[in-house]
Specification:
The complex is a heterodimer of chains A (111) and B (117). Chain A has 111 residues and is mainly β. Chain A contains no helices and nine strands. In chain A, β5 and β6 form a beta hairpin. Chain A is globular, with a radius of gyration of 13 Å. In chain B, the strands form two sheets. In chain B, strands 2, 4, 5, 6, 9, 10 and 11 form a seven-stranded mixed beta sheet that branches. Chain B is globular and about 40 Å long. Classes of the chains: A mainly beta (111), B mainly beta (117).
């Protein structure tokens, strides 16, 4: 799977939007972009995924650059419960179904 | 509750011992994945089973083995335990319908925390 690069940590204030970046300059045309998060003392949790177009769901939005070499996970109004490690992962069509986790971005939300 | 059930939640044992961790996947999910998370290694993929057959293997030690039963639950067996095996072990499941769709979503359980003394 192609490599992703994320900042080690980010900080936000409660009720403000959060933009979590992910660079994936070697992405191929068949790579899906997935985001998972892991809250403290819990298992990872699916957040959102996309291929080419921006995606929205009840948890977040995913903005994908036109050249697909980067993406941004957007939490529209951060809550204390959003404090977690966020992982950006590429999944190739026809590739393994396992998830390969990097170090992710640790998001701290200040009250 | 994610629908993936892992037991036991906590386990304390001694070096040299053997333990079995159990995972029941979400209803309808055919694939089960095992991951290990230690402080210094992050989340490491161990092994995947699909409908009873091994599908993919990661850096799983020879002392570890797993299997998926006809009712789709899975067990991870850890033997000759060492201090370094202390970690969180996560099971995940997915409704895999084919090889590598790219859009497959994994649902994780709450984990089993193993402490080896």
């Amino acid at each position: 799977d192609a490599k992703t690069t994320q900042p080690n940590s980010m900080e936000s204030n409660e009720e403000e939007p959060v933009h979590l970046p992910c660079n994936h300059s070697t992405i191929s045309g068949t790579d899906y972009i997935h985001w998972y998060r892991q809250l403290p003392s819990q298992g990872p949790e699916y957040v959102i995924h996309g291929l080419t177009s921006n995606v929205n769901n009840r948890m977040a939005s995913l903005a994908i650059a036109e050249d697909r070499k980067s993406s941004t996970l957007i939490l529209h109004r951060a809550t204390l419960r959003d404090a977690a490690v966020y992982y950006c992962i590429l999944r190739k069509v026809g590739g393994s179904e396992k998830l390969v986790f990097g170090k992710g971005t640790k998001l701290t939300v200040n009250p | 509750d994610s629908g993936v059930t892992q037991t036991p939640k906590h386990l304390i044992t001694a070096t040299g011992q053997r333990v079995t961790l159990r995972c029941s996947p979400r209803s309808g999910d055919l694939s089960v994945y095992w991951y290990q998370q230690s402080l210094d290694q992050g989340l490491q993929f161990l092994i995947q089973y699909y409908n009873g057959e091994e599908r993919a293997k990661g850096n799983i030690l020879e002392r570890f083995s797993a299997q998926q039963f006809p009712d789709l639950h899975s067990e991870l067996n850890l033997s000759s335990l060492e201090l370094g095996d202390s970690a969180l072990y996560f099971c995940a499941s997915s409704p895999t319908t084919g090889w590598g769709s790219g859009a497959n979503v994994l649902t994780f359980g709450a984990g089993s925390r193993l402490t080896v003394l």
